[in-house]
UniProtKB/TrEMBL annotation:
Name listed for the protein in its UniProt record: Reverse transcriptase
Amino acid sequence: MTFYRSNAVISFDYRLDGISIQRVSQVHDLGILFVPSLNFSPHIDFMTSKAFRALGFIRRHSTNFSSANCLLALYNALVRSVIEYGSIVWSPYTTVDICRIDRVQNSFMRFAGYCLNIPHPPHDYGPLSQALRLVPLSVRRDNFDITFIQRLIEGQVDAPRLLGELSFRIPSNTRLQCNFYIPTNKSNFSRNAPLIRMMHNANNHIDY
């Protein structure tokens, strides 16, 4: 597979013992789907489909459940674990992809609201998320970013190359609270690269 972000693709014929290696258009690596453009929309498609299948299993077998703790345990173990796995790599930044992921949790909340008789206006998930104590998925992804960068700095994640990519800021103004220097990026793709996004989230986090 050749990874590229431009229209000019260098397609080299790689060989092993004189035999051409088959070129593929997508590959799963440690549970994450990669494509040549490094666009994670196909992975989000795959991941949300898998999550909806798990949610369908829960709905078929727990319609008569009246315990919020039981429903949440099933959701966290079988569904949310799927849509959050590896999010520090593929965390979405487009509204379309964010909404596609949110649909999974919204669907669960509608089902849980039906089982538990939680009153709520149509398409208003605020009362449901409050009653079920479910934090928005986007907030959880931001927290995962901050946790990862903290563990990286503290040495709990053994990745010297990644640590060397962090741009620490030494402020001349004591009122400046930003811990990282965010380089100027000309595209949304580079602006939302994992480490850039993590440093940006850490700068915006009040307690960091």
